[in-house]
Amino acid sequence: MIPDSILNSMRADLRAAGGYQIEEIEAMPPKYGVWPTADKKDRVVCVSAMEVRAAIAEIKAKNGPAPAPEPAPAKHVLQTVLEDAGYETRSYSGRGMFGKTCLGVSTDQSLGAIFATILAGAVELARQDEDFDSSELESAVQGLRTDALGRNEIVYFPRVLFVD
């Protein structure tokens, strides 16, 4: 049996850790509990499986079930158009973006060729779906920027999140 002070500390840490870590703890070997403390450092306490499960049950009763994971963001129509045309898209952080990333495509083709690809993609989307709204695509293209990458150039779109 472990002292109440350690169990109380464990319960506090479990409360601070949130649902995902609690689910991980349930799958641990029966003699050990490992969980992140409030300061995000792992702490290992030797406890019985019954004590860990009791602490988890107490936390779940107070907090409810673990939150559902956030759905992955959908690809922007511009990224889909470029990839469908054979361009290799990637995450890029350009000048003045302060580490924020966006959709980018490196190419040795002219900017006009990229515009032609985007325009052809928009026309095809409009043919397939008469309710297609091009405003999202227009907004993305209006904000485009370029950087030189040696022999190639990268065209990037700060208003568009890259989705892997």
Which labels suit this protein?
164 residues, alpha+beta, 4-stranded antiparallel β-sheet, two-stranded antiparallel sheet, 6 helices
Question: What can you see in these coordinates?
Answer:
The protein is of the alpha+beta class and 164 residues long. The protein folds into two domains: 4-63, no CATH class; 77-157, no CATH class. The protein has helices spanning 4-17, 19-26, 49-63, 77-84, 111-128, 135-142; strands spanning 32-36, 42-46, 89-92, 102-107, 145-149, 152-157. It has a four-stranded antiparallel β-sheet with strand order 3-4-6-5. It has a two-stranded antiparallel ribbon with strand order 1-2. Strand 1 and strand 2 (42-46) form a beta hairpin. Helix 4 (77-84) crosses helix 5. The longest helix has 18 residues, at 111-128. The chain starts with a helix and ends in a 7-residue tail after the last strand.
Spatial sequence of strands, sheet with the most strands: 3-4-6-5
Rg to the nearest angstrom? Answer: 25 Å
Helix count, DSSP H or I runs of 4 or more residues? 6
Largest pleated sheet: 4 strands, antiparallel
User: Regions with pLDDT < 50 over 5+ consecutive residues?
Assistant: 34-38
Task: Name the average pLDDT.
Answer: 77
Structural class: alpha+beta
